[in-house]
Amino acid sequence: MMGQLELNENMMEQLELNANMMEQLELNANMMEQLELNANMMEQLELNANMMEQLELNANMMEQLELNAYMMEQLELNVYMMEQQLELNANMMEQLELNANMMETEREHDGATRTERVHDGATRTEREHDGVTRTEREHDGVTRTEREHDGVTRTERLHDGVTRTERLHDGATRTERLHDGATRTERLHDGATRTEREHDGATRTEREHDGVTRTEREHDGATRTERVHDGVTRTEREHDGETRTECLHDEVTRTEREHDGATRTEREHDGATRTERLHDGVTRTEREHDGATRTECLHDGVTRTECLHDGATRTERFHDGATRTERGLWRS
């Protein structure tokens, strides 16, 4: 009996061991299934990656197709433009043939000068070259034009019945002169300075700009005026035969000077203080107002007088070389 019990216990242990092995086998089977599932997922990911690459390739192909379509349109446009150009060239050739039939041409060479005269029914043209100077004269019924080049200076003269124009360019200076019967105008540009002179019979005007300073001078027979602006200071001077006036403005201070032969006057305003100085040959007067205090000083060669008024107090001082006097008036 004891032997049977031991045998039964051994069998029970064997059964438990078998049960554990069965559980292990089931676990191994589950792990195998998981590995297969992972392998399937990896294959799916690779397939998705291949599909993404295919989509990118398709997008690139679509862009290429659009580019090809645009290039085809461009080629069609180029073909159309070529056809238009060829048609225009054909028309121009026909026009040239027609002009050749219509134009009368005369050429002359006397050993020193070559001369060519052309008349196409509307315009008469004469070209001349004497070895030094090339000259071209043209008249189209309205405007007479003459162009001249002597190797140094280019000259062009035009007259349309109203205005005479002359342009010169010598490599350094450009000059243009105009005369319309009423006004004479001359413009010069030497690369650094632009100058314009104008005379209409009554007023002479000259404008100058050198890149930094603008200058304008005007003379109408009675008054001479000069305006200068150098980027910082604006200056205006005027002389009408009796009075000289000068105004300066440097963005901070305005200054005006006047001289009429008898009295010199200077007015200054810097935004805070107004100052006026007068000298009539006998008395010097200076008036100042800074917004709070009014000051007036007079000196006639004998007596100095100073008057101050600050809104509350009036003060008056005199000095005649011997006596000093001061009077004050205060508000209570």
TrEMBL record:
Residues 107-292 are annotated as: Disordered. Keywords: Coiled coil. It comes from the Eukaryota. The keyword Coiled coil applies. Residues 5-68 form a coiled coil. This is Uncharacterized protein. It comes from Mytilus coruscus (Sea mussel). The lineage of its organism: Eukaryota, Metazoa, Spiralia, Lophotrochozoa, Mollusca.
